[in-house]
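User: Run a structure prediction on this.
Assistant: Running it now.
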Amino acid sequence: MIDGLTSAGRSRVVVLEAPAGYSKTTTVKLWDAADARPFAWIRCESRHNDPALLAEALVTALGSTGIDSKSIESLRTPVPDLAVLLERVSQAIGELRAFVLVIDDAHLLVEDSAWQVLYTAIVALPEGSQAVLATRNKPGLPLGRLRARGELYELGINELALTRRESRELLAGLDLELGEGADSIHELAEGWPAALYLAGLAIKQGAGPSDMSGFNGRDRMVVEYFHDEFFQEMPADDARFLWRTSILNELNGPLCDAVMQQSGSQAILERLAGENVLIVPLDRAGNSFRYHHLFQEMLQSELARREPEEANDLHLRAATWLAANGDIPRATEHAIASGDFDLAGSMIFLDIADITGRGRIATLDRWLASIGDDRVRRNPPLVIVRTHRELVMGNGDESFYWLSIAERLIGEDSPSYGDFLNARATMGPDGPEGMIRDAQLAAELISPDSPFQVSAKLYEGIGYFLTEDNRAEETLRVAAREASAVSTVIQSLALAHLALLDLEMGRPVDAHRHISRARDQVRRCGLGSMAAMALVFSVLVKVLIRVGKSEEAVVALEQSRRLSETMEDYVGWYEAELSLTRCQAMIQNGQFETAAELLGQAEVFVGRTKGATRLEQWLEEARVTLARPAAGAMNLTRAELRTLQFLPSHHSFRSIGEQLYLSQNTVKTQANSLYRKLGVNSRAEAVMEGRRLGLLDGGE
């Protein structure tokens, strides 16, 4: 069989499909030992149905291929946009030497989005590489297409079942020389390796072979055998160690010490792994292990039978240790399994920035579903989490619904009151003055080390911005600086508002620097599909038009439009800024009809944001411009509008031409043409008229 696998090099995909106990993993391990190529293993768990977590597991697996550490670190940068991450992973995979990607226990993947992650990786495999799937059922890949192309090599029950000779060898390995009796056992087990092994152990202990049908880890034969024979022959402490640690999908010494409330677990694992083939090492150093699935199922059945009251405490200890060692996602899984939903809620809340920053919304939704909405409604941290979840997804109605629950649930004496105020500051239901008040009080109540401190700083700064308070610029600068280590979303929003201030102060170069930095961060971290980034691209449009880069502005405008369409009754101040900045950009670009449509939207949103004097001023300026546009201004060409954007600067016509890739004479001709259309005689008058018409931002 191994010879067949090693000679199947032309097949891009190899599938080993058979029920549990057919030694699929063992077969691939033997192939690994016989093949010179590196093998990268992904051992699937149910949690990997979250495509973000599966992609993360794929990146980790690539570490065994010889990929350089810098590439691995770049791939681990938080990227909530899965398409961006997969594009990076595909590029990294394509640059590697030939290797084998193993997806073990692939049957645990049931979501189409998870299979899309794997298929993307498989398509990107370099020449001479293969993907191997060990699964109990059909994988979610286009098998027909792969088969038709000759790119699929399949092994099923018939190929994986032991031959008569191999069955005899297995039984002989247990010091059983049964002669023709070995053939009878082979027929009864139908070559099923696990069943043969257990049957051999039973015979060795004096029992006879029994019915092998419907065999699994909780099968009567397995449970009764281990109950009556295996555990009777094993020291009680070892048996208890096995069934209590069966709650863990991955075992190591320190974690098992915490679960068992003892020391020396690493030595126990190493000894038991040496004595029992059903304990599988996960690394060459022998530091990490897992139980064979049949064995784990049996052990969990034994735990439920012997110590049902212990399970919750065991999960709780695992959760505590994992959280203390920085593995919040796995800790959360065990906290939920323990039934301690308060602990689970606090862990999810602590992890919410990373969850949203890495696009792990599917995992968050699975956790919340496991806990249930009724429990979520009674859990302050989870209510805040749910509020942020809906905000990230652009669901305004839902976010306000959960904020209203938080308002009723969380009193001023609650430890979560600061987090509630921070959420209120984000959404601004009481207008910008309320945003400032809520953000300042939240900062006082939240721990100084909390990542939510920078969030409070951002929304305090936005409140100042909306009310034309001079403290806005410095507050937003602090938020942008501190957010660089915490949240790209917060940093990008802070930079976008700084760019708007730069434009109003007549600093287009600074505005371009700030918004370009925000755009680059959004691209680097794959945030381009998040609704909250629509404003960044809207401001980018305004700045690009201001500096004469109309072609780039068209691309940014489409991105902003696409993201804004994903919002449903979103936060008022945000949609007001979004529609007004786009309206201003269209006016600057001479697209008055589109600007008028955006003005109608802006009027609705500004009406929901009482006290936002800056937005009210923008709105009035846009109304005046669109109500009485100058005839000449209506006839300005795009080239003339682009030139107009440079006139407030101190650049000469020659310098403007160099930036626009035009000759000095062409710029001078365009300037004279727009002077005539605006009815002015000089550059200074053109700037004043452009500002009066709303074609230029105000400023010195």
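Residues 414-632 form a domain with the Serine Threonine Protein Phosphatase 5, Tetratricopeptide repeat fold (CATH 1.25.40.10).
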